[in-house]
Design a protein that fits this description.
single chain; alpha+beta; Arc Repressor Mutant, subunit A; Alpha-Beta Plaits; Methane Monooxygenase Hydroxylase, Chain G, domain 1; three-stranded antiparallel beta sheet; 9 helices; PaaX-like_N; PaaX family transcriptional regulator C-terminal domain-containing protein; PaaX_C
Length: about 250
C-alpha cells in the first residue's frame, strides 16, 4: 500500500510572503472574491508589500489569467474561483454519518502521458482519496462533495467494504500522526503570531494548505484528540480578524 501524502516532519510549511501570494490569499478568503485596488493597497501595507510592488503583481496576474479587472476592481478568474471553492470545502467540509462503506475509484484510462497522469492524481487527491495501489483509490464514504464531470471518462466509481479493519486501513493510507503533529504546531504558531499581521498571514496561509491535506475521516477512524476541528476553528476566527484588520471591515 502507498500513501498519497508525504509523511513530513511535523514542521509547519511557512513560505515567504510575495505580493502575488498576498493578493491571492486576500481574494481567496473574501466573499465575493473581488477587491478595489484602493482596498488592496491598504491591505498590503501592514504586510510589508509596497504599493509599486502590488501594482506590478496585479498587472502580471491579469496577464497570466489569475485575475480579471474592471474599473480598478480585481476579482478571481474562473479557474481560481474553483480553487476558492476547494479551499472553502477544506475549511468547512460537508460530511455524513459513516455506515462502514468506502468509496473506491479505479483509473480505467490507458495511454496517458506523464502530465495527464499527474493532473489526474492531483484531482483524485483533491477529492481526498488515497492510493491503495496504482490506479486504485479509496476513502471512507462519509464525505459529501461533487466530482468533476470530466473524471467520468477516465475512472469508474464503486462502493466497497474492505475486509481489512477500517482503522488499520486508514492509518496505512494516510500519515495521520505527522498530519496531527503539524496541525498542533500551526495552532501554536497562530496564537504566537496573533499580534503581528505579516507573521499571522504567513501562518494562516500554511494552515489552509495543511487543511487541504486533511483526509476528513470519520471520527471512529481517527486518533484521540485529532486536531483538525481545532485548526479549522482557529483558522476561521483568526482569518476573520486579520481581514478585518487589514481591510478595515469583515470579509
Amino acid at each position: 500500500m502507498r500513501m498519497n501524502v508525504s509523511e513530513g516532519t511535523g514542521e509547519a510549511d511557512l513560505r515567504p510572503l510575495s505580493a502575488r501570494s498576498v493578493v491571492l490569499s486576500l481574494l481567496l478568503g473574501t466573499h465575493p472574491p473581488e477587491l478595489a485596488v484602493r482596498d488592496l493597497l491598504r491591505a498590503v501595507e501592514p504586510l510589508g508589500v509596497a504599493g509599486s510592488t502590488l501594482r506590478a503583481a496585479l498587472s502580471r496576474m491579469v496577464a497570466a489569467g489569475d485575475l480579471r479587472s474592471t474599473d480598478a476592481v480585481y476579482r478571481l478568474s474562473d479557474r481560481l474561483l474553483d480553487r476558492q471553492r476547494r479551499q472553502d470545502a477544506a475549511v468547512h467540509p460537508e460530511t455524513r454519518p459513516w455506515d462502514g462503506d468506502w468509496e473506491m475509484t479505479i483509473v480505467t484510462a490507458t495511454g496517458r502521458g506523464p502530465a495527464e497522469r499527474a493532473e489526474l492524481r492531483a484531482e483524485l487527491t483533491a477529492l481526498r482519496l488515497a492510493e491503495l495501489r496504482e490506479g486504485v483509490w479509496l476513502r471512507p464514504a462519509n464525505l459529501l462533495r461533487p466530482r468533476p464531470h470530466e473524471l467520468g471518462a477516465v475512472v469508474r466509481h464503486f462502493t466497497t467494504r474492505p475486509e481489512e479493519p477500517a482503522r488499520q486501513l486508514a492509518a496505512t493510507l494516510w500519515p495521520l500522526a505527522p498530519w496531527a503533529k503539524t496541525a498542533e504546531a500551526l495552532l501554536d504558531r497562530i496564537t504566537a503570531t496573533a499580534a503581528h499581521p505579516s507573521d499571522r498571514f504567513t501562518v494562516l496561509a500554511a494552515a489552509v494548505r495543511h487543511l487541504l491535506a486533511d483526509p476528513v475521516l470519520p471520527p471512529e477512524l481517527l486518533p484521540t484528540d485529532w486536531p483538525g476541528p481545532a485548526l479549522r476553528t482557529a483558522y476561521t476566527r483568526h482569518r476573520r480578524e486579520l481581514i478585518a484588520t487589514v481591510l478595515g471591515s469583515p470579509a
